[in-house]
Design brief:
By secondary structure, this protein is mainly alpha-helical. The protein has one domain. The protein is built from five helices and no strands. Helix 1 packs antiparallel against helix 2 and helix 3 runs antiparallel to helix 4. The radius of gyration is 16 Å and the shape is elongated.
Length: 124
Amino acid sequence: MNASKTNQKAAVVCADQCRALVLLDFAELQTAGRCADETGEWSDDDFDLLLATDAAHELAQALSPGDDLTNFEAGWYRALAVLVLVSKAYAPGDTTYFGRAMASLVRKMQTLPEMWQALVEGLI
């Protein structure tokens, strides 16, 4: 087996592991949303943000790297785009549990693709 195929297979495994990590963060974000609701941090405007977050979660759940990362990456960045907009629209920013959980998820989704790209390129 040549190095290129080995790199690609390693990148696919890494991408799937990155997806699993992100799904754990989505669970944390849901917990943060419930806490925000229980403590009265939510305004009526925030409900739309929660729905958008749920949509991003569904996009992330549907991701499957398969043998080619092209579609996986496109779906990854679609979910990330939704989360970036939610984090910008959430008025309290990262001053609340929900805001901090959202910021953490966005940072993770922005940096994790570097790992599977490095594998594809044979850098690691």
